[in-house]
Amino acid sequence: MRYRLEAAADSAELRLGSLAQAMPVATPLRVLIVEDSVTDAELLLMELKRGGYDVSHGRYTTEAEVRKALKAGPWDLIVSDYSLPGFDGMRCLQLYRESGLDIPFILMSGTVGEEIAVEAMKGGAHDYIMKDRLVRLVPAIKRELREAVARRERRSFMEHMEFIAYHDPVTRLPNQRLFLQEVEQAIRQSASGPGRQLVIAIPEIAKFKEIRTTVTQADYDTLMRQIADRIWLRCEGMLNLARIDDYTFAALFPVDKDADPAAAVRGLLTAFDEPYEIDPFLLHLDASIGMAVHSPGIPAAGMLRNAMVAANQARDKHQPHALYSMAEDLSSPGNLALLGQLRDAIRSGELALHYQPIMDLRTERITGVEALVRWNHPELGLLQPEKFLGLAESSNLIMPLTAWVVDAAFSQWRQWRETGLDIDMAINLSVRNIQDHAFADYIAQRAREHGIDPGRFVLEVTESSIMTDHEVANDELMRLRGFGFKVAVDDFGTGHSSLSYLQRLPVDDIKVDRNFVTRIGENPQDLAIVNAVLGFAKGLGKRVVAEGVESGEALGILRGIGCHLAQGFHISRPLEREAAARWLAKQKLGR
Ligand code: C2E
Ligand code: CA
Ligand code: CA
β-strands 240-245, 248-256: how paired? Predict the structure, then answer.
């Protein structure tokens, strides 16, 4: 019996299937018609039916009716007459735009008029059709509906990209970027409330790297999800949990000012009391906690870094938890001595610029170099900027340091140019420079004194420093561009902005952070993100520079997707000036 029923159903389906093939099914189309003439509306409907549409429609003639109809929806298409008594097509177009709908809007008119057509298209109409040329209507609608679908797909792709760019795909928790953004917001809104303070806590799981390499990827992912779930369950009052890298979770808590932060975040430790089940094993994990309390003036990124410092301390000292202490860190004997010496180093010529070439991927020529500061320390040897820039930034030394860098870069550029090396040069600015209203005038003045062309210099500002106070930063960047300098947003992707924020940034170049570039060949997510940035940048007429190109493979991929410029160890490491001059002399330069 059962068998027969199924067989019957099958054959019914078959019949329906072949019928559908023989007679093309009309496409349903819901049309909002704004037209006073019944006859014209009938003609329009006939044309649509002839074009293969199964039309349902509403016809309206007044502004009030159209407003209501737009709200009631849903519609696939709007066709509006250009002139109606007491209402008109341009006004209707405006209503449509205000509604935020993204469906084709087609304006129809009985009169010939080039100006009307231009006005309509400028106003955002998708097409303009004469009533005596109705044959154009169906092809135009087909095209516009296709376009609207493509727009929607692009939008949902961008939304998907934004999700990927801001979340860990395994646990679906926020990633480091989003976490920092959320911490920043919590700081701004003083989410902790009066008498409360914000604490970032990081569980440092013992031997986690070993575990990572002994279990399968799938088991590791499962473990990460289990840990995340358990932390959420155990930590009452936690504001946020993020996975900030492959091994690390970070949590944000509001804590009473006079309470012990360690007590408030204890839930994090209890998440590791019982073993985790990774079939067929029971995995006993041991964790310690690093904490950092927010103090005024410290940005989210600094707070997170401090929590990590504390997590390392807790692990090294085998303590269940450690609280970051600014005093311990800044006054650590090594740092204090270094800070004192840096002041003299700037004056006495111990600083040097190294230069890293930048390549145009279309022409494979070298277009410029980025100037990177180094410190030739008499005892410690060559120091990388990470060793001393933080110190300079937390004291007032960043101003004289940048002034030194600017002068050194300007004179090097001139000297090279006089010997026939004609290239662009990029200089890094610190967040403090772009918050300083006098800086733009200062650097413009120095450019005049050195007789250099500001148009050949790109001033790089990190995304996170722009976001620190983006209104001030935007003004300063605009002033720098006003003086003829180019501006680049550096380390793009690590700050707190979103792709769509790029639209408002007054910059010429976008330097995609090397986190997205180095493994572009292995990691499809990275590729998708760089592609999305490229798509956005191209639409806005900005150039994209990929940093951290370490392999020929990455270079090839970047060229393939149309990235403009590349920089990285695969092209060349940063070189001291003599070596840079020799290297450049052997290259094809220019665009
Ligand atoms: P940045 O602006 O992102 O500079 C690029 C950094 O990436 C350089 O590190 C460079 O050596 C490194 N790098 C270049 N290609 C590759 C690659 O293929 N793979 C990898 N893994 N790394 C690569 P460096 O010189 O240590 O500079 C670190 C940061 O210090 C710079 O990052 C910049 O933010 C800052 N900095 C350097 N010079 C100055 C300066 O004169 N003023 C200011 N305010 N900041 C500076
Ligand atoms: Ca840079
Ligand atoms: Ca960078």
Answer: antiparallel
Ligand 2 center from residue 476 Cα (angstroms):
18
Give the largest CA-CA distance in the chain: 98
Q: Tell me if 31 sits within 8 A of 57, measured CB to CB.
A: yes
Average pLDDT score over the chain: 87
514: exposed, middle or buried (C-beta count within 10 Å: 0-12, 13-18, 19+)? Answer: buried
Which of 479, 482, 477, 534 is CA-nearest to residue 510?
Answer: 534
The first and second tokens of residue 362, run together, are 């279309």
306 pocket-lining for ligand 1 (C-beta < 6 Å): no
pLDDT tens digits for 282-336?
Answer: 889 989 999 999 877 677 888 898 899 899 888 888 889 999 875 556 556 677 7
Q: Which of 115, 116, 113, 95 is nearest to 105 (CA)?
A: 95
User: Is 385 touching ligand 1 by the criterion CB < 6 Å?
Assistant: yes
Q: Are 360 and 354 in contact (CB under 8 A)?
A: no
Query: pLDDT tens digits for 13-72?
Result: 333 333 334 456 788 999 999 999 999 999 999 999 998 999 999 999 999 999 999 998
CA dihedral sign of residues 537, 539, 543, 545: positive
Helix (H, G, I), strand (E, B) or coil at 351: strand
Q: How far is the CA of 513 from the centre of ligand 3 (A)?
A: 6
Per-residue pLDDT at 192: 59
Round to whole Å and give the CA distance between 299 and 285. Answer: 32
Contact (Cβ atoms closer than 8 angstroms) between residue 261 and residue 275 = no
Cα(203)–Cα(402) distance, integer angstroms: 37
